[in-house]
Amino acid sequence: MSWWGTLLGGTFGYLLGGPLGALLGAALGRRFDKGLRGLETAGVAPGEQERVQTAFFTTTFAVMGHLAKVDGQVSQSEIRLAETVMARMNLDTEMRRTAIGLFNEGKAADFDLDAVLDQFRRECHRRRHLLQMFVEIQLHACYADGAVHADEARVLRHICDRLGFSREEFAQLEALVRAAQGFAG
Fold first, then answer.
1. What is the pLDDT of residues 149-182, one digit of tens each?
2. pLDDT-derived band of residue 23, with 50, 70 and 90 as boundaries?
3. What angle do CA 127, 5, 150 make, to 5 degrees?
4. Given pLDDT bands bounded at 50, 70 and 90, which one contains residue 65?
5. How far is residue 16's CA from residue 119's CA, in Å, rounded to a whole number?
6. Are 28 and 9 in contact (CB under 8 A)?
7. Can you give the three-state secondary structure of the chain, one letter per residue?
8. Which of 2, 4, 108 is CA-nearest to residue 62?
9. Threshold 0.70, pTM exceeds
């Protein structure tokens, strides 16, 4: 039984809206878990589920680091958000080091965003709801310091293009995240 999505959704929900946000986020995170269970019925072995979970984890933290750096400087609020996510995910010391390393790799000037996104999309077997959850997390990361900067918005649009989201879908996701930010206060 997969639980990563519920945990991740609950974590982001809590960060944005406290206990009620955690409940909403966990409910949304079940979509991720449901998608992983759907991989079984699509003929994907349980070991493949772990690959999808690993790809999601890896891509999430690396791209979060990339987006944090794209506007020139990583803010303390962006670092705090990443640390809070790690804490809420109850990552052990090794996994935390891995997440920090991925975040730092994403900040590197030679980070190959397109290659990472392409592999992530392949590993997700084009499960739309998994990709959508990933984009929502990246939007939350961009709003960590209060606003999405122009360079962050440009990269977010590129991410959505690469993952197959239309401009309208991106606008809907962004509106959802802005509403969640308003709810969080």
1. 999 999 999 999 999 999 999 999 888 888 876 6
2. low
3. 75
4. very high
5. 29
6. yes
7. CCCHHHHHHHHHHHHHHHHHHHHHHHHHHHHHHHHHHHHHHCCCCHHHHHHHHHHHHHHHHHHHHHHHHCCCCCCHHHHHHHHHHHHHCCCCHHHHHHHHHHHHHHHCCCCCHHHHHHHHHHHCCCCHHHHHHHHHHHHHHHHHHCCCCHHHHHHHHHHHHHHCCCHHHHHHHHHHHHHHHHHHC
8. 108
9. yes
Instruction: State which amino acid sits at residue 3.
Output: W
* 82: amino acid identity, one letter: A
Identify whether the C-beta of residue 33 lies closer than 8 Å to the C-beta of residue 57. no
Question: Residues near 168 by Cβ (< 8 Å), separated by ≥ 6?
Answer: none
Chain CA centroid to CA 10, Å = 13
Separation CA 67–CA 60 (nearest Å): 11
